[in-house]
Amino acid sequence: MQRFAWSLWLSVVVPLRFKTAAELWKVHKCTQCIMLIQNYGTLCSPHGDAHHNSSSIDFCLAAVYVSDAQFNRNIFFDTSPQAVSLYLLYNHWAMQMIVYVFIFVDLALALFEDPAVIPMPIWGTSLVEMICLIVFTARLFHYAKVIPRIRFWKDPKNICIIVIILLSLIDIIIYGSLKSTGYNAVRWSRVLRPLLLVNVTEGRQLRRAFRSIRNALPQILYVFFLFMFSMLLFSLMALKLFGKRNLFTVDGEPYFTNFLDIVFDLYVLVTTANSPDVMMPAYNYNSFFALFFILYILINTYIFMSVFLAVVYNNYKKHLKEEVRQLVKSKRQKMLRAFAVLQQPGSGEELVVSQENWNQLVHLVQPDISNAHRELLWSISDDCNKSHIGKLAFVQLPDLLNIQVITMKSRPHPLHIWFPLLYDSSVSRLLRHAVKHKAFVYIYDLIILVNAIFIGLDEENPLIAYAEWAFLALYLLEILLKLYTWEPRAFFAKHQFWNWFDSVIIVAALVGAIVNLCIKSSDGYTSRQILDIVLILRVLRLIRVVDSIKRFRTIINTLIKIGPTILTFGQLILVVYYIFAMVGMELFKEKVKYLEADSTDPYKDSCGTPLLRGTTFAKNNYCKNNFNNVVSSFILLLELTVVNQWHDILSASAVSHVSARLFFVFFHIVVVIIIINIFVAFILEAFFVEYTVEKSDLQTSLEKKIEELELSVDNEHDNNLVDDMETNENDMGPSENAKGKPSLMFKIASKRYKTVDGLLQRMFEADLSLEDADDMDDPNFSNITFDSV
Amino acid sequence: MQRFAWSLWLSVVVPLRFKTAAELWKVHKCTQCIMLIQNYGTLCSPHGDAHHNSSSIDFCLAAVYVSDAQFNRNIFFDTSPQAVSLYLLYNHWAMQMIVYVFIFVDLALALFEDPAVIPMPIWGTSLVEMICLIVFTARLFHYAKVIPRIRFWKDPKNICIIVIILLSLIDIIIYGSLKSTGYNAVRWSRVLRPLLLVNVTEGRQLRRAFRSIRNALPQILYVFFLFMFSMLLFSLMALKLFGKRNLFTVDGEPYFTNFLDIVFDLYVLVTTANSPDVMMPAYNYNSFFALFFILYILINTYIFMSVFLAVVYNNYKKHLKEEVRQLVKSKRQKMLRAFAVLQQPGSGEELVVSQENWNQLVHLVQPDISNAHRELLWSISDDCNKSHIGKLAFVQLPDLLNIQVITMKSRPHPLHIWFPLLYDSSVSRLLRHAVKHKAFVYIYDLIILVNAIFIGLDEENPLIAYAEWAFLALYLLEILLKLYTWEPRAFFAKHQFWNWFDSVIIVAALVGAIVNLCIKSSDGYTSRQILDIVLILRVLRLIRVVDSIKRFRTIINTLIKIGPTILTFGQLILVVYYIFAMVGMELFKEKVKYLEADSTDPYKDSCGTPLLRGTTFAKNNYCKNNFNNVVSSFILLLELTVVNQWHDILSASAVSHVSARLFFVFFHIVVVIIIINIFVAFILEAFFVEYTVEKSDLQTSLEKKIEELELSVDNEHDNNLVDDMETNENDMGPSENAKGKPSLMFKIASKRYKTVDGLLQRMFEADLSLEDADDMDDPNFSNITFDSV
């Protein structure tokens, strides 16, 4: 198996380019480590008496623990050298990437399977799916080698993956044989595919989200039952009040005569989708009846829906807090294990880790960290300059590593090196001063606004077309001027989001415009696609204005910060949508057809079916809202999430299938009542955290240290260009500084979190800090830790 | 002026019956107090040396301070005896009631003014309005006599009322004279009427809500501008992408060609009202264009709307917290003033209030409090049995008074007194035991469920009609059995909500059914109105099931608890709706007509105007959604608040008025984005408080004391009937108890707040407690207090 994994690694990972030199170095170091373990494995196993003279293998093991703690991985791997080396490979980014690529290939198969967007033969899709399944099996096999056998079989997510793989295999065989003999068959195992995303080792965030939902369910259910009870009472009242009055709806159907129809109508009213319509017949009959609906909307739409949000929010927060506490606990456990591996007897009874060992460990965990940065971290850990640290300080290491410290080097401008006289001339100085001036920003904001007006005007007017070139030239000039003023590598540093944004947009617009011009001049007509892209790029350019208004920037920054977690919700939504899309496609495919305008179908105006003739659905041209393939299913489900008109969309499916109502209502409950509320809850929480929580303790101590050492960047004097600057390179460039500042400076990117867990931990920091202290003193806790090593 | 106020008091208040004997006593005591002040006013003014021998006037003044502190009144009244007596009158509940009655009469005038629901001549409405204005002026005059002249003119709410009264007068005169000479005129001053609700002295809650909104506005505005910016960018992109593609909407109009129309359409899309419709032409043209709308909805509907909620919630909470802190501060100030009036030198340097004085004060502040209850409160204040209390303990008094302590007296059943042998017979005992058994509740829950099914069936079936009588009899039997088992006065105690609910519903249903039967047997046909009422009562009966399921009860209890504050929001909504309704009526009245089915109008099918022929508005029978009178205006505004189809409703007004869009969008921003979000925020906060905050310190100390004295009601043994029991009477009935328990028992109604401020204070308690302690030790603060007395 190990050989297989190695060959897989060699054949798949190596051809992929390594991200950076640092990454390459890390892999190299890890390989070295593995070699070492393989050669001296039995000799220096961590079970032996290796506490005093830490060997390379110990460092490797400790590094794995630290990096697990840093990224909150909770895998109880074997501590045998072979397992550790396999574990290192298992956690390699390329391996994780492969798994995700194959999961998405597997999910994307729905595009090609019947009902397909792009039809493919059954053997083709089956073959691809088989390959995917083999990859998943291999990954699982790899995992089984890493962790103890008993733990493997106790873990429900492994069992889940095995069951999914087996069921998919069975389904492929049944479906293939039935289809080849001409029978109809259902690809039921497709519903299981998105569950892979949840059960894969890397799906921690997603699993946590699902767990939170599951834990919140009982509370939600009680409110839901009360809500249903209120709805049923109102329905009964509506039946008694309106059923005997011989009223008719706009479509001429009897109004509120059937109890189940009333229940459904009132459920739709809760979503406000049929808001005035359902009331109008009663209101037209007697104005007083409006009271009934007002009361209903007040109680069920406003109060109950708010209560749902409150319950979902509260439970979600509560359970998430519990989960994060567990996370912090297990992080500490891992760090204590790492400490146990590297510990040496210090002065007195205390066990300590020496600075030398610590340096080596950090070097192994994060090879791309600069020496200065590492020394800074050490000086925080070792407050008293004893050149060794105790357990408490050591445990902080992953948190310290997770704080993004920006190492800034003041480097001279290349033009300054090449043409010092010219670059330092008074004209050049004036120019650079002008570019740095606030007025420069304002002028360009004004240009953008004028440009917005020009974009709004008709672009076929030749004058406007010429003006567009002028604007492009102005934007290019801006970038060149900025590059002239600031050091290019600093300008295009990793996290200089707006600089990158500007440059990419402008260059793309330039390329697009030139391509467009070429096509136009050669063929004589404009390519619509390229023109579309050029137009979109033009509009996107205007976003830049946001950056120059401080208040806007803070809101945008908060939004960007919660971006990664919104991605977790994206996955959550994907899983739910995919399952509903698969079920929906099997139930409702081809019930409604979208026919082009030139179709000769006799039911062209009613979506290809006589059943829909004259319905709102057909009248509103909704025919494309169907379950005929994955893409339109997803768009349809999105429309249902937005809620409006969902009863009309439903009606189309309902004409052929009575179960449609159940399907649609269930979707509404799951997505709108539960998931969207959790989404809102999360955004609320994230904003509150931004508004209230200050920097964490560790960050402030780090900042204090930086200030002590007079290495901090003065925020007053540096504009926002420097503000966001980050360079992670290791090498030390030639240092030179006019103002006498140190050439190397640090700044804490306090507003950014490396991991989503970091954000979550910060959310509940206030509540956790006290309990954390308790954990540290808990003797049982420590014992468990040391026993297990 | 004083004589005027007195005669007003005599002529208006006295004819109104006094609520309870306690209330009567209070008024009597106050009048006595006033007499005293009038007779010896100059002699015993609180400015004199009255600190050692507290006179009645001092008590009166102290009582006013305490009661102000208890109800959070912030009126800086003159401390002269005359002013105090006037102030007592000013705060009398009947006076406040009169003001509110006249405000609602003033507001209700819109029903009779053109465009009227029930037309009335102009002189009639003008006369009523004049009377209202006179009452407001009198009230303001009264207020001016109570507080110092300078304070009166510095208070913006007084200026506001004066301006409103003057403008209303001017408007009446102008309108009357213009109308009488045949010109057209606009009643513009009607917009100002609801502002009276805000500016009246009693509108504290409402003013606070408006202040919170005003303070949150800047933050909301920044997010709103960013949101608008994003919307404009998307609109520009839509114009460029779709404008040149010759697409058409379902109605055959060009699709996305006019920039302003696009902006409006996309604004409507944020509210999801035109959700799939606006997307369909682009989606039908090319599936990829759906991406544009998905992105738009994700960013603007989901993310921005959540951000709005977050910002509104956060700012509202922050400012409310500040307001409540001010409230607590001024409450303490008032108590310190009261203390200064009653203080005596105690042992050492400390100034104290003796138990005797304290008793007299409490008696004056809350005459309906029982002696036992008062002693209980004293024993909490005076921890060390020193028979006098210091400043710190004294200041707690209003909080203590605000805690609802339920005094329970075990009283024998009247039947037990009248027929002791019969009532204590074994059959009677068994019966009472059976009624108290859980199975009794379950049996009646089952009966209710069966009844629900019967209600759902057709009531014209004679069998069902007879069954209905059987159910009525069963319910009556239940009430009688319960009355037999429990003491009737306890059963119908003030806060026995469910007992009252049951009895009222059943008796009403019985009366309705009998009346219905009589009419039917005499006239031979059924009165629809009475039948409606009977049917509604039948359905309402089913609500009782909620009470027997514990989880439901807790949710309902939380909802009931936040009820009073929802009323504040009701007033807020009323003010905003009224203003918009008035403006809307002037702008859009008679543009759209609702015509009965037998009308001969040629444009009957298009709401009486050729402009609406063939529009969705006319097709959907929306004609009654118009601004032709106050009632339909309010219902229309409610429909706009629910949001769905609001663009269709708007279109009807827009055909005649271009400004309609502005009006409707402005309404949407004010009501949906700001007020509804605050409403949601409040419900969220209230639920979170319920989930997390435990009883406040004072309540627990009170509970401890009750337990110490062995006076607490044992929750285990008493079922929920006793659980909610409360009697406030003063007299001590004959005590008798079988189990040897004390005949008088206390229980804290911890789940109820006497005032909305109490709930708010509890909300922010955790944050306030520390700062409160600071206030107490602040010497400056005390000085200010003593100086001002």
UniProtKB/TrEMBL annotation, chains A, B:
One of its GO terms (molecular function) is monoatomic ion channel activity. Residues 1-21 form the signal peptide. Its main location: membrane. Keywords: Membrane, Signal, Transmembrane, Transmembrane helix. GO terms for cellular component: membrane. It is found in: Membrane. Coiled coil: none annotated. The keyword Signal applies. Residues 94-318, 438-689 form the Ion transport domain. It is a multi-pass membrane protein. It comes from the Eukaryota. The chain crosses the membrane at residues 93-112, 118-138, 159-178, 220-243, 255-276, 288-313, 439-457, 463-485, 497-517, 558-580, 662-689. InterPro entries: Ion_trans_dom, Volt_channel_dom_sf. This is Ion transport domain-containing protein. It comes from Denticeps clupeoides. The gene is tpcn3.
